[in-house]
Amino acid sequence: MPESRTRKSADAKLRRARQEAKPAKVKAPSSRRWVPPTFITVGLLGVIWLIVYYVAGPSIPYMSDLGNWNILIGMGGMAAAFGIATLWR
Length: 89
Description:
This protein has 89 residues and is an all-alpha fold. The protein has one domain (5-25, 32-85). The protein contains 4 helices and no strands. It is rod-shaped. The chain crosses the membrane at residues 34-56, 68-88.
């Protein structure tokens, strides 16, 4: 049994509506070459901050003013490096 013209046009409208309703796919950035040097640098800066604080902290004016906040700064750098490392593919 042949289909009616209205049936075909309704199906075509439905297909067009479905295609328009689909959200466009967002493509992830393909190049992540910046990630390894960045997380290594940020992590090393955190470690170096802690080493300098423990070795020469009292003799450096701004470090002695920060007190125990230096530990948070150093650990924060290492945590930021870990967060950046999760972006690596």
